[in-house]
Amino acid sequence: MLPVGASSPYALAPAKPGRPAIWRFLPYLRPFAWQFSVSFAMAPLAVAISVSIPLLLGAVVDGPIARGDLPGVLWFALAILGLGTLDAGIAFIRRWIMTRATSHIEADIRLDLFDQLQRLPMSFHKAWESGQLLSRMMSDAGLLRRFMSFGLIMLLTNSLQIVVVIATMVVTLWQVGLAVLAAIVPVVIATLALMGRFGAISRRVQDQTGDVASAAEESLHGVRVLRSFGRSGYAQDRFEAGARELADSGIKRMNLASVLWTLLEVFPNVLLLIVLLGVGIGVSDGALTLGDAVTFVTLLLSLAWPVGSLGFLLSFAREAATASDRIVEVFDADVSIAPGPTTLPEPRGRLELRNVSYQFPDADAPVLADINLVIEPGETVALVGGTGSGKSTLVSLIPRLLDVTSGSVLLDGVDIRDLDLEQLRSLIGTAFEDPILFSMSARENLTLGRPDASDADIAEAIRVARADFVHDLPWGLDTRLGEQGMSLSGGQRQRLALARAILVAPRLLVLDDTLSALDIHTEAEVEEALRSTLGGVTGLVVAHRASTVLLADRVAMLVEGRIAHVGRHQDLLATVPEYRELLSADYSIAMGEEDAS
Ligand SMILES: Nc1ncnc2c1ncn2[C@@H]1O[C@H](COP(=O)(O)OP(=O)(O)OP(=O)(O)O)[C@@H](O)[C@H]1O
């Protein structure tokens, strides 16, 4: 495992005990240092303007108004108008600068998160629901951006304004200032207590958002199954349960937030009571002028927004902290499959599995144990075995979708964990039983593993995989396939996936039951064409049918995660009853084909 942060390719700062996760995003702000500096530098200016307006009001009451000097009043009014306009201008510039900077930061975080998801091993993707990952990448990253964009700066500006106004009050009339300070203490304590509870519920809401996204994603993905079983209602009920749970948690969070917001919105009125009493006494004692009283009261009124909005801003900060925790969990996930330093100058494609075992992280026992198998360059081995015997797990070890838990896989004598991952994967063409296609053109799908493939290479791969139907699509190779290639039949998708694997011109071809959806005749045609392709590469072919086994030079039979038998198809048929039994359904066909060949 790579030590977290130390060799991370991302800007994210390393974790430090006791430091909230949100701080780890600080390096993402670095490229926008001047934008943040300008925005933060504007905060004291905005506060100075807010505080100077009450001071000017006090001065106009004691000065021009007391003297009946109308032009003087007008000058003061113009000055106050100017300051107000300046304040609005500052807010506009700040918003303008920050929106751009934080949108880039959000995109950077999202890109790194996407990259991390590509790096994380299949065991991670099997364990995590896609909706949870999606909600972290979309809504949590968006929330973080909004907080950085205006929440953070408002929190800073408003807190600064509260401190400056109260300090001004203490300096102007310390008795009233101290009374205000004393009144603040219980409110701060109540706020902290509410924030603690808000944090827990905020995490629940954000996690449930991911659960609801997962449920929606799963139901949409499986809409055909649900409809055909007449279980759309059941899916609706399950989704509704999740959505209602989320709504309930959202209401609880809102209730808590409302208590906090109301407390902080009412509080300035309590302070107004204290201040009015204080200045009333001050004016009657002659300690304060009428202008001082106006200054004092307006100063306090200027606190209404900063204090009132504090509830919203603190809960916003808490939600952003939770979003950071959730995003960081993905960044900190164990990227155990790291690239090695070695590149093979002239790969030949000799594959060796040496004492290989694999155990899923949460499983009690290994699914593969002590596998030893050598496949020479140009040789094809068929992997057969009952359902759940570990065939797919074994082939996943070759392109390092999973890493062995003991033993080693060697390519040309080098442990594949020491090989450059990009080179390793570029040497392997893989096609799975479930052929995933992407919502892009047929050509883009085909050239996924080799974007620079020539038209002739594409045509040859299509010929071998018998995927000629692409030419009959409305725009031929440029036809955009629907989501996951849903507009194609299962067999068509499998043939496209096979053509995609062949097009890589791999040293190693790994086919995981790739031809299962083809009819017997198409399968025979594909196999006939594949034979010549397999002649030049090292092949590992998972086979359920005897006809597919015939593609191979040798067969390895897996029984409960162990290689029980290895040999030629004919020899195994003759000597291993369980092998015969396994392929019995296809036996007659196999024999027929063999006779013909
Ligand atoms: N993420 C996982 N965690 C724990 N066990 C798993 C996980 N994925 C698969 N398994 C188990 O590993 C075993 C081997 O699965 P695998 O998919 O490799 O079998 P297979 O031989 O390819 O089966 P089939 O022919 O049905 O496709 C199965 O018992 C399966 O339940």
UniProtKB/TrEMBL annotation:
One of its GO terms (cellular component) is plasma membrane. PROSITE patterns: ABC_TM1F, ABC_TRANSPORTER_1, ABC_TRANSPORTER_2. It comes from the Bacteria. Its main location: membrane. Keywords: ATP-binding, Cell membrane, Membrane, Nucleotide-binding, Transmembrane, Transmembrane helix, Transport. Residues 351-585 form the ABC transporter domain. It is a multi-pass membrane protein. It is found in: Cell membrane. Residues 45-319 form the ABC transmembrane type-1 domain. The chain crosses the membrane at residues 32-61, 73-93, 147-167, 173-194, 259-281, 293-317. GO terms for molecular function: ABC-type oligopeptide transporter activity; ATP binding; ATP hydrolysis activity. This is ABC transporter ATP-binding protein. It comes from Tessaracoccus defluvii.
